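In this supplementary section we document a worked example of the pipeline. Step one takes a protein sequence of length 310 as its only input; no multiple sequence alignment statistics are reported here. Step two produces a three-dimensional model, which step three serialises into structure tokens for compact storage. The input and output of this example are shown verbatim.
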Amino acid sequence: MFSEVLTTEEWLKMFDNVFSNHPSYLLMFVAAYAICSRAPLLHCNQKEDFEYFFHHRNNLDISAMLKEAYHLMECTPADIHPQRMLDDFVPLTKGQYPIFNKYPTFIVDYQSQERERIRQDEIEYLRERQLAHELEAKAAQQKVDDEKWYRKQELLREAEEQRRKILLKEEEKLAEQKQRLAAVKRELKIKELQLLEAARRRFLKYQQDQREMELNRLDDEIARKASMREQETAATIRDVEVQQMELEAQRRLFEQKLVKQKETATQEVKGELNTNRRKADLEDQLLQRLMEAERADKREAQIVRARIWA
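The serialised model returned by step three reads:
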């Protein structure tokens, strides 16, 4: 009944005009209120805006609305005028009030609705308070969990730092071992080169000695033959040929012996080379074992780190 949208003075002024006119004037005033509020209503595009407008006070001129209501009363055609469907106001009976069962239900149910609203508000307040307590308990538990997590992270960080230092020390030891192994390998390589160089020089000296011995032997043989040739100038051609054949056989025998001696020297050099190769293989095997041990240490460290994180 306009109590939400009008002030007390405006409401009293409206009902002064309502009671002094036909009951249809109240309907005309409703239409006049909507007509006077045409501008703001046209800007509403949501249902909530309309509901808010008709349930809150607005800056409207009550006199203009009353005039518009009178204008509607006068200008509305008789065939659609609500005056023909509503009776005039009648006075109350004396002694007792007449039977009236058409009172607006929203006013009758207002008290029960208010009680229900208050009950719902209390339930909502209790639910929110319970939720606040639960949130406070969860926050406290979360704080405890966070502290535990931070302590665990600190322990993990310290363990990781300790493992990192151990790994650094192991890497330093491994680097030192690699350096020592590289130095040993260089020494063995130098020794191998020295042995090869010594064997080559010994073999060259042996060849040179053999050639010198051969040349000396040939010189001695030539001198002997020349002496025999001078002494045996009277020998026959057949004896000379036989001697030449013997010399040729001796030369071939000497060449075979020389070849055997060269082969023997070559076998000795090959034996030394094989010995050096075996030493190099042993060094490679040692290096491979060290590298496998290093990889095993790294894998073990990774497993330990994974267990710590788990």
